[in-house]
Design brief:
- The protein is an all-alpha fold.
- Helices cover 75% and strands 0% of the residues.
- The chain has nine helices and no strands.
- Helix 1 crosses helix 4 and helix 2 (23-35) packs parallel to helix 8.
- It is globular and about 45 Å long.
- 47% of the residues are buried.
């Protein structure tokens, strides 16, 4: 639960700061603007796609993983909206751009730290972060940076698609570049520095 809240907190900061966000959140914001649908609904829909993707990656049906990730994305979508509205109420969107840029980058650090914590625990996590965890350990020999970069292909395609049809670009700015360049590195450093005694609990039966 702590990892869920920290992740939602960081994403809420990014959205409210409006100086860019993680690529998946940015893709959700652009889809939200294009379809006139709430960001929470889009995040939930993208999460469901990730849940199904994970079942394919492990090559078997895992009902416990499915239910756990469904519950995570359900509450995550709600809390991201709640935190973003709270930060908007505090007046973050009215701050100077430089400060908002720093706040949005800090949001990236927060959600990357959350990802590190619950990926290592490997009990329940955001389905997209489970995707990168599976890619990292089943397909990429433990390389967190390569897993993050591979996972970024889909949201980049979504953002380009939305930009073509709407002729506008939302939630893509300095923090998006920061996230693209440093997501994997921040997660790896959090693995080393934040509760280092918490080791990756990647289950041996998750083999393809």
């Amino acid at each position: 639960m702590g990892g869920l809240l920290l992740n939602a907190f960081g994403n809420g900061l990014c959205i409210s700061g409006n100086a860019g966000s993680g690529l998946w959140t940015a893709s959700a914001v652009n889809l939200s603007k294009l379809t006139n649908t709430s960001v929470g609904v889009i995040l939930f829909a993208l999460g469901m796609i990730n849940i199904l993707t994970n079942q394919i990656l492990i090559h078997h049906w895992d009902i416990r993983r499915f239910i756990g990730e469904f519950c995570f994305i359900f509450f995550f979508s709600y809390f991201v909206n709640t935190f973003a509205q709270f930060f908007n109420y505090l007046g973050i969107p009215t701050l100077p751009f430089l400060i908002r840029g720093l706040i949005s980058c800090l949001g990236v650090v927060f959600f990357c730290t959350a990802i590190s914590l619950y990926q290592r625990a490997n009990i329940i996590m955001h389905p997209n972060d489970d995707t990168t965890n599976l890619l990292r350990f089943l397909y990429l020999k433990g390389n967190s940076t390569a897993a993050q970069l591979l996972d970024f292909i889909v949201p980049i395609v979504i953002i380009i698609f939305c930009a073509i049809f709407s002729h506008k670009l939302f939630a893509v700015n300095i923090a998006t570049l920061f996230s693209f360049l440093f997501n994997g590195l921040i997660i790896a450093e959090a693995d080393r520095l934040i509760f280092p005694q918490l080791k990756h609990n990647f289950k041996k039966n998750e083999q393809h």
